[in-house]
Design a protein that fits this description.
CATH superfamily of one domain in chain A: Rhodopsin 7-helix transmembrane proteins
Structural class of chain A: mainly alpha
Distance between the termini of chain A: 49 Å
Helix content of chain A: over 70%
Largest interface: A-B, 35 and 20 residues
Order of helices and strands of chain A: HHHHHHHHHH
Shape of chain A: globular
Number of helices of chain A: 10
Bound molecules: retinal
Oligomer: homodimer
Chain lengths: 236, 236
């Protein structure tokens, strides 16, 4: 038997950690087991989708237990998770645009920006909490550059060039980054004392982050999956 | 529920152990799941890349918990890990050069040298700490012979003979050994009392080693993966 702790029926944070953990595991199984239905060009993209949810599944496992045992926000694990999965999402952008001739430099640029965004976010959220606004600002700037790059910059041009299911997938992923990722700064503000804490109530931050993760990690992967299906059907 | 320990938000050593552990797991999944996309010549190389990161994932799991529970450098586990993974990297060199007619004797020579390097390094770091300089010196000599062998010795000749993606991969791996592996003697010096301890501060040694491992194990594997992709695309 596994060790068991009682969970309060109205522990919604705990509930979303459990649901999130299982959803990530199921999504990983789905991506890993279906990747071989596709040709090589798409296989790697779907494998990376699976890695993203797999990494998240492991961290949700920790976070769930951490929450159950200690009852605090597992900020540490969240950022360990993000610092691995967000760069992998940047890889995903590159993989999709590779057919249109995307260069590795685009990938490294996005990865670099995302790491800046997350490291400064961590410093503001967990280490230099008094300067949360400053670190959040730097983080936000990096975030906006990413948004600009994929919506209007070189990535956009490549997607238009490729057209078809690549363009469609790119556009969807762009929306994820603009709307889905924007959930996180909201969570950050909800978790920063003296900000909008009152509106959401301190603990809701974790619920916000958990919903964001489910949308962004699983949804992002499903868009890639859908693009692969569409491109396969057209060529069949 | 897993046993949970609290981790301080500014415990950067702990942070790199966690990120390292998860990155190694994800990399293993990536190599294992993608190896079947390649033809036989490359399949084994990618499998070995996966073994290297898998071995590391298990040891990072131990080291992470050791650090969390005891708060000391897990030198013991580190060398257990290296003594398995570094010889496997030597196997990787051999596998890549096999097409050019590399002999098994080259592989055994590199393996032998790497074991000397690591056993003497362990003696200096963990057992005869007072003679750290002597053991470090012997270890360093073995390291330099490895560098010489692959950069200028017989391995080099074979790589030039093979040309193409083999030569390119070999050159990249050579850079890993020269620059990436050089991170470890720096960590050794940072961890040896009375040396450059002051510059880095005692504990930074583990951060240095962890960054080195991520670069060398995952990066090394990705170079092999990239070579396999390149050679496949050319022949397709
Ligand atoms: C802009 C901004 C942030 C952005 C975080 C983002 C965009 C995280 C994305 C995470 C994803 C996509 C994870 C899952 O898969 C922080 C760090 C909260 C700090 C405040 C400013
Ligand atoms: C030269 C030298 C060392 C070299 C260690 C190396 C080169 C380790 C490489 C490890 C790798 C590549 C591991 C991971 O994959 C020691 C033992 C620190 C002792 C001091 C002298």
């Amino acid at each position: 038997f596994a060790e068991v702790t009682k969970i309060a029926n109205d522990d919604y944070v705990g509930f979303t950690f459990f649901v999130g953990c299982m959803a990530m595991m199921a999504a990983s199984a789905f991506f890993f087991l279906s990747m071989n239905n596709f040709d090589r060009k798409w296989k790697t993209s779907i494998l990376v989708s699976g890695l993203i949810t797999f990494i998240a599944a492991v961290h949700y496992w920790y976070m769930r237990d951490y929450w159950g045992a200690i009852g605090e926000s597992p900020t540490f694990f969240r950022y360990v998770d993000w610092v691995l999965t967000v760069p992998l999402m940047c890889v995903e952008f590159y993989l999709i645009l590779r057919v249109a001739g995307a260069k590795k430099s685009l990938m490294w640029r996005l990865i670099f920006l995302s790491v800046i965004m997350l490291v400064t976010g961590y410093l503001g959220e967990a280490v230099y909490i008094d300067q949360a606004w400053l670190w959040g600002l730097i983080s936000g700037i990096a975030y906006f550059i990413i948004v600009y790059d994929i919506w209007l910059g070189s990535a956009k041009k490549l997607a238009v060039q490729a057209g078809g299911s690549v363009l469609k997938a790119h556009k969807m992923l762009c929306w994820f980054v603009l709307v889905g990722w924007a959930i996180y700064p909201i969570g950050y503000m909800a978790g920063t004392p003296g900000w909008y804490e009152g509106i959401f109530g301190g603990l809701a931050m974790d619920v916000i982050y958990n919903i964001g993760d489910a949308i962004n990690k699983i949804g992002f992967g499903l868009v890639v999956y859908g693009a692969a299906v569409a491109s396969q059907e057209k060529s069949a």
